[in-house]
Design goal:
The protein is mainly alpha-helical. It has a single domain, classed as Winged helix-like DNA-binding domain superfamily/Winged helix DNA-binding domain (Arc Repressor Mutant, subunit A). It contains five helices and two strands, in the order ααβααβα. A two-stranded antiparallel ribbon has the order 1-2. α3 packs across α4. The radius of gyration is 16 Å and the shape is elongated.
Length: 96
Amino acid sequence: MSFRKLLPNRREAMILAILLHGEKYGREIRNLYEERTKLGLPIGSLYVTLDRMEDPERGGNRRKYYTLSASGLKSLNLLREAMDSTRRREQAVPVN
């Protein structure tokens, strides 16, 4: 698997960051996402993203609570490292 596939996209990264603060159900995630990003997120789009991120072996209740898994934390940390590396490279380039 490529390094790039391990990195979450922007929406996934924000969802993972929201879940750092404990389990949430879908509508809570959407409300916090919109509050933090100032961007609208249709509830259907959120659930498509959550389904893509979810562990396929997990069973489900009617109302699902989502938590940050070990692999989600790893993805978030990889993204943070990649962003830090990019920032360091940009700062190292002299400006004329």
